Amino acid sequence: MKPMGKYSALTVAMAFAAVGSAAQADAVWDRIAERGKIVCGAIPNDKIGSWHDRESGQWEGYEIELCRAIAADLSTEMGKEIVPEFRETSWKTIVLDLQASKIDLWPGMSATEERKKALSMIGPMYDLAFCGVNSKSFTEGATWESLNDPAVRIATVTGTSVETAFKEGAPNATHISLGEYAEVTLAVQSGRADVMGADILRCVNVRAAAPDAFGQITVPEPLKSMGSSAGILKDADQLAEWLAVWAEEKRASGAVTEIFMKAFEAAGVDIAELPPEVKF
């Protein structure tokens, strides 16, 4: 076998370098840098999370504020202004919109196995504590042990992480599994169930919408929570790496909690409804 000539070796080295460069390419990162904007999903009627304010014409919510914060820090990282742009989507279409590059980012959703097959799920960006909204006649729920009684009736939505958490935390309780949250809230209001199991955002929303129809919000100790991740296009490796570090730093500094408090205020939710042990 003849030894490889000088130019042949150089050609091979250049080919390997090109392969390595291609492997590290990130079309989403490059698109954001080139356009000077990051396109985030926005859901018009998901109060607290994302909604369109008719009076101001502005998008509001913690998902929106997360995107604005990400854009501000990307501006520093990229050395140029990155403007957040919001494009309407829905929970039914958000994965397809990300895959089709109609949007670059959705900053918070559960990292289900199906979503992880379709997208890169980065995070957690924030945590949502599991909580209960009690009926007006039920005063327990400060601990999982206080719920762990066959006499306690807990209503949750079938097949959710909330249902799993309450069945694990209070296996001896009487569990009522229903198809959607409207049925769960009705079960508590009608006296069919003692507690509505949910995440803290839904608990606050339900309690704020009908404060006279329910009892207190409880966050059973020890605290259990589920993480929410940012969804981005697969192979967006540079953005994924940057977002993972960003999320960890912002959660540790308390900046994410501040974003949530701002969203609660904009939604007209009294933060006194939030148990003090809840962090995001």
UniProtKB/TrEMBL annotation:
It comes from the Bacteria. SUPFAM superfamilies: Periplasmic binding protein-like II (SSF53850). Keywords: Signal, Transport. Residues 37-267 form the Solute-binding protein family 3/N-terminal domain. Gene3D superfamilies: Periplasmic binding protein-like II. One of its GO terms (biological process) is amino acid transport. Residues 1-25 form the signal peptide. Belongs to the bacterial solute-binding protein 3 family. It holds the Pfam family SBP_bac_3. GO terms for cellular component: extracellular region; outer membrane-bounded periplasmic space. It comes from Paracoccus alkenifer. This is Polar amino acid transport system substrate-binding protein.
